[in-house]
Design goal:
The protein contains 19 helices and 28 strands. It is α/β, with parallel strands linked by helices and 577 residues long. The protein folds into 3 domains: 212 residues, FAD/NAD(P)-binding domain (3-Layer(bba) Sandwich), CATH 3.50.50.100; 204 residues, FAD/NAD(P)-binding domain, CATH 3.50.50; 84 residues, Recoverin, domain 1, CATH 1.10.238. The strands form 9 sheets. The protein has a 7-stranded mixed sheet with strand order 10-9-8-5-4-11-22, covered by helices on one side. It has a 4-stranded parallel sheet with strand order 15-14-13-19. Helix 14 crosses helix 15. InterPro entries: EF-hand-dom_pair, EF_Hand_1_Ca_BS, EF_hand_dom, FAD/NAD-bd_sf, FAD/NAD-binding_dom, NDH-2, NDH2-like_C.
């Protein structure tokens, strides 16, 4: 005999104390099962209340902010994201966007899609922060897409932890006329404007009523700044002109001129000299006019004025100028720095754990901040005290070696100094202060210890403002937030030189993975760890593979690869869209 299953529900009001009754009967030919559940009785068990989650507010959706969000365990915190742009942009490919090699939408990923993959209740607001109040732990924001009842679109957001990852703006060095007359290359919108401007210059130079001098002026493209961005843009523009636009504008293509202006003696000064020399030689062969040792002092609508010690002031007419000379601090960050006593600094100063100095609960990553590495000589007396466990007033090599690992972690410049001087260990360093340190029993007093470590702080270095640094900082900070509760009970950092116990986390350490400098003509210079230098076509294919791999989604990865393939087959698009 086959039985069926049925569901019967009785609403409240039948018996006191019972709001509803659920009866389920399920049976088969071999037997049956009856289950009762009373969900509304007076004796219902109260669920324990979970403690409220700490609120983490993230400013910015660039490399640092997005990497932090992708690695953060959002179940542990109430996460809120505020940014004036609702997408992440793969900024290393912006020069490719200017020439049509890659389309703008191929290098952007909607931030809400990134947050959706994380799960949880992460909130996003498209707005910009214009003031940080560290005393009350609130930030003042202004919406870009709507207004409130007062019509100004402003609102307040409070925080327990604030992660400032707003990047930086281009530094004009207060040069007159730069903001009004030059293009920048920091955002996707900048790349789109440059692309349209290039095509406008060619179309304007093709008009029938212009003389040759006016055509030359319109086709003179000036790039100010010989860093990686300026060099890559100049190379990308040269490829666009020679491979595509020369076929579309044959009558004026011989009038095109590209100038690269750099105040230093060489371009790409952060690269190995072999790469610098190759880049300058290649640009010379390609017809790109590289002017080193020139400082731009004024930019007008029609001319750029530059100075050189040998020639004095020189003014040259131009059709389009791109300014790429470094980074500057955003206005609200400048005001924030004044509030916390950092008014005389260029960017926000953080400690080795990315915490903004003199500011509770605020972290800063990416281009808007720099790590202020603690110097050994500032703590030399405390280091001596911690190492001198027997309180004898002297240190043996063995006593130093007992805390050497903690010193290496807390003060990485010590290890860098030993490596730069080709020293095998602390014994070699001590030998420089005291004649013979072959035996562990050799002792140093405080003055001899100071002498031994007096030069190690020369190895303190500032990190470059690159996507690679910001990404690693975001990943590190997310890992710290994920382990914050456990680290309170089981700290994993080095010994506290000033204080008791250990630091909760190991300090941030940047690991340089290499850098590229595309030079046009399907040639790229690569400088990888271990002093490995590669220049040529093989490095270009390495550049393709690395940049495709580093895309944050399969969607953008496929779009970028398809754009490269399209360019190989059909060339670059020259439409003024």
């Amino acid at each position: 005999m086959r039985w069926s299953a049925f569901l019967w529900e009785a609403t409240s009001g039948r018996r006191p104390g019972v709001s509803n009754l659920l009866l389920v009967v399920a049976a088969a030919s071999s037997g049956g099962l009856v289950a009762y559940a009373d969900s509304g009785s007076d004796a219902a068990v109260q669920q324990p209340q979970l403690p409220p989650r700490k609120k983490v507010v993230v400013l910015g959706t660039g490399w640092g902010g997005t990497t932090f969000l992708r690695n953060l365990d959002s179940r542990l915190y109430d996460v809120q994201v505020i940014s004036p742009r609702n997408y992440f942009a793969f900024t290393p490919l912006l020069p490719s966007v200017t020439s049509g090699t890659v389309e703008p939408r191929s290098i952007v990923e909607p931030i809400r899609r990134v947050l959706e993959k994380k799960g949880g209740e992460i909130k996003f607001w498209e707005a910009e922060c214009f003031k940080i109040d560290p005393q009350s732990k609130k930030i003042h924001c202004r919406s870009n897409v709507g207004t409130n009842l007062e019509g100004n679109g402003e609102f307040l957001v409070d925080y327990d932890y604030l992660v400032v990852a707003v990047g930086a703006r281009t530094n004009t060095f207060n040069t007159p006329g730069v903001v009004e007359n030059c293009h920048f290359l920091k955002e996707v919108e900048d790349a789109q404007k440059i692309r349209r401007s290039v095509m406008d210059c060619f179309e304007r130079a093709s008009l029938p009523f212009l003389n040759e001098e006016e055509r030359k002026k319109n086709l003179h493209f000036v790039v100010v700044g010989g860093g990686p961005t300026g060099v890559e843009f100049a190379a990308s523009l040269h490829d666009f002109v020679t491979e595509d636009l020369s076929k579309l504008y044959p009558s004026i293509q011989h009038l095109v001129k590209i100038s690269l202006i750099e105040a230093a003696d060489h371009i790409l000064t952060m690269f190995d000299k072999r790469i610098t020399n190759f880049a300058e030689d290649k640009f010379g062969r390609d017809g790109i006019d590289v002017k080193t040792g020139y400082k731009v002092v004024k930019v007008s609508k029609d001319d750029i004025t530059m100075q050189n010690p040998a020639t004095g002031d020189i003014s040259v007419p131009y059709g389009m100028a791109v300014w790429s000379t470094g980074i500057g601090t955003r206005p609200f960050v400048v005001e924030f720095m004044k509030q916390i006593g950092q008014a005389n600094r260029r960017v926000l100063a953080t400690d080795e754990w990315l915490r903004v100095r003199e500011c509770d609960g605020v972290y800063a990553i990416g281009d808007c901040a720099t790590i202020n590495q603690r110097k050994v000589m500032e703590d030399i007396s405390e280091i001596f005290r911690v190492a001198d466990k027997d309180k004898s007033g002297t240190l043996t090599v063995k006593e130093i070696q007992d805390i050497l690992d903690d010193i290496y972690v807390r003060y990485p410049q010590v290890q860098l100094y030993l490596k730069s001087k080709q020293m095998n260990g602390i014994a070699d360093l001590v030998r420089s202060a005291k004649g013979d340190a072959e035996k562990e029993s050799v002792e140093l007093n405080i003055e001899e210890f100071k002498k031994a470590l007096s030069l190690v702080d020369s190895q303190v270095k500032f990190l470059p403002a690159t996507a690679q640094v910001a990404s690693q900082q975001g990943q590190y900070l997310a890992r710290c937030f994920n382990k914050m509760k456990d680290a309170e009970e089981n700290p994993e950092g080095p010994i506290r030189i000033r204080g008791e116990g250990r630091h909760r986390f190991r300090p941030f350490r940047y690991r340089h993975l290499g850098q590229f400098a595309p030079l046009g003509g399907e040639q790229t210079a690569a400088q990888l760890p271990g002093d490995w230098i590669s220049i040529g076509h093989s490095s270009q294919w390495l550049w393709y593979s690395v940049y495709a791999t580093k895309q944050i989604s399969w969607r953008t990865r496929m779009l970028v690869v398809s754009d490269w393939t399209r360019r190989f087959i059909f060339g670059r698009d020259s439409s003024c869209i």
